[in-house]
Amino acid sequence: MITTKYFFLLVLITAGFVFILLYHWFSANVIVGDRLSAVHLSEPENSAARFSGQSSQAGGRLDDLTVYREYDEKFVIIYNRVPKTGSTSFVNLTYDLCKKNAFHVLHINITANMHVLSLPNQLKFVRNITAWDSMKPAFYHGHMAFLDFSKYGMPAKPMYINLIRQPLDRLVSYYYFLRYGDDYRPYLVRHRAGDTMTFDECVAKQKPDCDPTNMWLQIPFFCGHHAECWNPGSSWALEQAKRNLANEYFLVGLTEEMDEFIELLELSLPRLYRGAVSHFQKSNKSHLRRTKSKVEPTPDTVAKIKESTIWQMENELYEFARDQFHFVQHKLRTPGRNVMQEFLYEKIKPNPNVAGKN
Ligand SMILES: *[C@@H]1O[C@H](CO)[C@@H](O)[C@H](O)[C@H]1NC(C)=O
Ligand SMILES: *[C@@H]1O[C@H](CO)[C@@H](O)[C@H](O)[C@H]1NC(C)=O
Ligand SMILES: *[C@@H]1O[C@H](CO)[C@@H](O)[C@H](O)[C@H]1NC(C)=O
Ligand SMILES: *[C@@H]1O[C@H](CO)[C@@H](O)[C@H](O)[C@H]1NC(C)=O
């Protein structure tokens, strides 16, 4: 009686073990098999093999689309915003969209508002952003100089975007912002609150707050983390900023043409910016965060500022960015007609349909 009971128990336990072992062996094999076929099919060298078999062709098509969709789902954008370039209204729009379009927005807060990351933090930051899959698709923003991900041995780079503004406008706006704040956070007392000197008076008296050297900000932000970037008047920094703008930035818009910037983003990155144009127009964000009590500088003041090398160099970067932005915008539509540019493939050989029927 007792022995039969034990015997049955033994058989049950053994059967359980065998089942678990078989299950593991099977699932491991199936997963490895899947991975192999996925790699195999997404390799362009094997495209000839894909044409020959019907089954692999169907599988291949499904797989291509999955890969394509993955690009959107693993997306990282960095917006290394320059202070006082209208960034608040754009970031506000992105926050409004993130829930509806299902992506994350993260602010990069660096100790004491520093614009350059320390060496250990550069590596940490780059690795963190790259590895943090549960945050993707992600939009990171912060007052941080451009950081070149290719120096840290990462498999993929994020996409950089930015906005750039006429340097004198930015300086004047910043000058009054420090004194009077803005309508976004009117309760906040700013560093120079109580100082009623106008920008014109400041320039006439050659005070440090309106020193053209303060305009040296958009160049270093685009130039990056090199010491020379932060040396006002450096022509190396200007050239580096232009090269980065052309080679490393997906899109750089103009504060003065925010609507067009948002339209281009909605058209090219719909995964994040679907519905952005109508939302932006409806919510009237373009008027958000206006610096209070701003007085336009007199022509004399403007002329004086424009004599400075710093203004001339910053303005050169601005004009470089402006020409690029207008170029991108004009290429959006067919010349002379208000029709979007399209592209298609044709003359595909050997014919995939014929090959599949063999
Ligand atoms: C964006 O700005 C509007 C005011 O124009 C405000 O109501 C809204 O809460 C802001 N959104 C975020 C995410 O800050
Ligand atoms: C950044 O973090 C510090 C420390 O937590 C905080 O005091 C500060 O308000 C933050 N800055 C912004 C812009 O949120
Ligand atoms: C990235 O950093 C954040 C904040 O420190 C942390 O919570 C997160 O787990 C990190 N992610 C990765 C993948 O390292
Ligand atoms: C948008 O803002 C402007 C200027 O503040 C105002 O004249 C206009 O009526 C506003 N439009 C809407 C739809 O709120």
TrEMBL record:
Its main location: Golgi. Homotrimer. InterPro entries: Heparan_SO4_2-O-STrfase, P-loop_NTPase, Sulfotransferase. GO terms for biological process: heparan sulfate proteoglycan biosynthetic process. It is found in: Golgi apparatus membrane. Belongs to the sulfotransferase 3 family. GO terms for cellular component: Golgi membrane. The keyword Transmembrane helix applies. Pfam families: Sulfotransfer_2 (PF03567). PANTHER family: HEPARAN SULFATE 2-O-SULFOTRANSFERASE, HEPARAN SULFATE 2-O-SULFOTRANSFERASE 1. The chain crosses the membrane at residues 7-26. GO terms for molecular function: heparan sulfate 2-sulfotransferase activity. This is Heparan sulfate 2-o-sulfotransferase. Keywords: Disulfide bond, Glycoprotein, Golgi apparatus, Membrane, Signal-anchor, Transferase, Transmembrane, Transmembrane helix. It is a single-pass type II membrane protein. The keyword Cell inner membrane does not apply.
